[in-house]
Prior knowledge:
Helices cover 34% and strands 29% of the residues. The chain is of the alpha+beta class.
Amino acid sequence: MSLKLSAKKINPKIFRKSISLKGFSLIEVLFSLLVFSIGIVSIVAIMTANIKISVTAKNQIIAAQLIQEGIELVKNLSDNKDGRLVKGNEYLDYTVDTNMSGQTSTINFVSAVSHRLYLDDGGKGFYSHTTSTKPTKFARKIYVDWKNNLSQITVTSSVSWDNSGDIPATCNVSTKCAMATLIISPHIGP
C-alpha cells in the first residue's frame, strides 16, 4: 500500500482575497477615530455653552431680585414718614440698603460713591453697599423723581452685573444691565 500525496496548487487570488477580508485597514480606523473625535468635541462644546447660559440666567435672576428689592426699599421709605425721603427732593444717584441687625432692619439712603454691591460674610446672603463684606459683580443705582405736583414718585432701580461696579449708560441685557421703574403715591406728610 502506498500513499500518494497530492499537492494542491494554491490560487493566489483566493489567498489574497481571504487575507484582505479579515481586518480593518488603517484608513478605516483613522476615519472612525475622526468621527468619534468630532462627536466628543461637539458634546463638550454643547456642555460649555450650557454652563455659560446657566450662569447668565443665574445673574439675570439675581439682578431682577435686586431691582425689586431696591424699589421695595424706596417704597418703605415713603411709607415710614421718618424724614429720610424729603418731599420734592430728587435723589438721582443714590444707593438704598437694608442693614439687618437682630430682628430689626434700618434703611440707609446715602449718596453713591460706588454702586458696587457686596455680599455679607455672615452667610445670610444679603447684598449691601458696605465695603467691609465680600465684593460681587453686581451694582445697583436708585433714581427717585417726584411727578405731578409732588403727588407721585417715580422710582427707577437699575442693576448691572458686568463686574465694573457701575451702571452703564445704556441699560439692556447686552450690556449686562436691567432696570425697572415704578410710580408710587407716597404716604409722607407735607
